[in-house]
Amino acid sequence: IKDEQWTKSFNAYISFKKELGREPSNHSKTEPEASIGRWTNNQRQNYRKSKISNDRIDKLNSINFKWKLKI
């Protein structure tokens, strides 16, 4: 993902968490939430596969991003 799009999704995630106080669901029936949920899942998958830059990891860690979700 290009940096501009990644930053846009990152900011959407921050806004979602601030407004609703929970993780977005990629199974949501509302598209904004589902889109943000898919983005967060992609970040977790890329992290597990070591396909995410240290800069992005640092940015996600700075907002206490949850790398693993309890199911």
Report on this model:
The chain has three helices and no strands. The protein is an all-alpha fold and 71 residues long. The protein is globular. It has helices at residues 3-20, 31-48, 54-62. The protein starts with a helix and ends in a 9-residue tail after the last helix.
State the major sheet.
Answer: none
Distance between the first and last residues' Cα: 28 Å
CA-based shape? globular
The number of strands is: 0
One letter per element, helices H and strands E, the order comes to: HHH
Indicate the percent of residues in helices.
55-70%
Q: Low-confidence segments, ≥5 residues, pLDDT <50?
A: none
Category from helices, strands and their pairing: mainly alpha
Averaged pLDDT, please?
95
**Computed Rg:** 12 Å
Count the helices. How many?
3
Give the DSSP E fraction (strand runs of 2 or more residues): under 5%
Give descriptors for this structure.
3 helices, single chain, mainly alpha, 71 residues
Short summary:
With 71 residues, the protein is mostly helical. Helices cover 63% and strands 0% of the residues. Helix 1 (3-20) packs across helix 2.
Spell out the blueprint of helices and strands.
Elements: H1 3-20, H2 31-48, H3 54-62
Helix pairs in contact: 1-2
